[in-house]
């Protein structure tokens, strides 16, 4: 848990302590502390506030992703900031949750991300899709590794039926294993499909693909943390 307000960390710790499958292995009040704690405790999931006293949460997310690629970052913030949402998604965050989300949904989001899925606050799916589309306008998609968000995917009519089904599942926060069970595919086949979709259409990660699915009407009007 990374938040400069001790009362927030205390509340989160109390909530998570009641869950037998979740263990709090560390907490930090600053970005630099977060990096040190992550090095020491090797968490599976990091809950990260965007506004920290020493550096912004986006740069901390990017640094966590670079140093510890196996760590899954969930942004937990009070602000529905369009720019920060896009920046953290492209920096590698696996979730973006507002602090007013109810406890059950927050716990579901943490578990979804821990299993390898993604979690977006239900109110933010359309915002992410519109922001990433507007960031590119009519321009061509950049090469992977560019700091600029890519164009948001193909004309939906170009997608195969299976690609549409997989994108819908991704937008609902499902893991590869859950997608496989739903579509009667092996987990390896799902990984192959996703790798092909990301590469062919210029998505840098699952969150960008999920945002496209919402904008294109493939998934519902909002992304859900968990199923």
Automatic annotation (TrEMBL):
Coiled coil stretches, renumbered: none
GO molecular function, one term: DNA binding
Domain (HTH luxR-type) ranges: 152-217
InterPro entries recorded: CheY-like_superfamily, NreC/VraR/RcsB-like_REC, Sig_transdc_resp-reg_C-effctor, Sig_transdc_resp-reg_receiver, Tscrpt_reg_LuxR_C, WalR-like
Organism: Caldinitratiruptor microaerophilus
Domain (Response regulatory) ranges: 1-114
Protein name, entry field: Stage 0 sporulation protein A homolog
Residues that bear 4-aspartylphosphate: 49
GO BP annotation list: phosphorelay signal transduction system; regulation of DNA-templated transcription
Biased amino acid composition, Low complexity: 136-150
Domain of life: Bacteria
Region Disordered: start-end pairs: 136-157
Pfam families referenced in this protein's UniProt entry, alphabetically: GerE, Response_reg
Transmembrane segments: none
Keywords, sorted A to Z: DNA-binding, Phosphoprotein, Transcription, Transcription regulation
Physiological role: May play the central regulatory role in sporulation. It may be an element of the effector pathway responsible for the activation of sporulation genes in response to nutritional stress. Spo0A may act in concert with spo0H (a sigma factor) to control the expression of some genes that are critical to the sporulation process.
Gene3D superfamilies cross-referenced by the UniProt entry: 3.40.50.2300
